[in-house]
Amino acid sequence: MLSFAPMRSSAKSVNVSPTEFRDSHAEINWRKLIGFRDFLAHNYEEIILEFVWAAVEDLPELRTVVRAAKDRLAGS
């Protein structure tokens, strides 16, 4: 059985991240990311794998931004 739990968990942490962090990284569509998490959590029967795959393809860019932000925070 396919599990989306790790993706839901990761995206949920974005929803509770500080507003200033999200505001300082406007290149990420936070609303879309949070909405995707909510969709995965509440509409499991309606998930279209092509949409999930499209989101997965966006992860490398998101990972780069989050790592850079983490490095900046660690340096301050």
Q: Measured on Cα atoms, how large is the radius of gyration?
A: 13 Å
Uncertain regions spanning at least 5 consecutive residues: none
Number of domains: 1
Run of helices and strands: HHHH
Question: Which sheet architecture does the biggest sheet show?
Answer: none
Structural class: mainly alpha
Mean pLDDT: 74
Assign an overall shape. Answer: elongated
Q: Distance between termini?
A: 43 Å
Helix content: over 70%
Topology at a glance:
Blueprint: H1 5-15, H2 19-23, H3 30-42, H4 49-75
Helix pairs in contact: 1-3
Task: Describe the protein's architecture and organization.
The chain has 76 residues and is an all-alpha fold. It has one domain (9-75). The protein contains four helices and no strands. It has helices at 5-15, 19-23, 30-42, 49-75. Helix 1 packs across helix 3 (30-42). The protein is elongated, with a radius of gyration of 13 Å. The model has no long low-confidence stretch (mean pLDDT 74).
Short recap of the structure:
It contains four helices and no strands. The protein is mostly helical and 76 residues long. The protein has one domain (9-75).
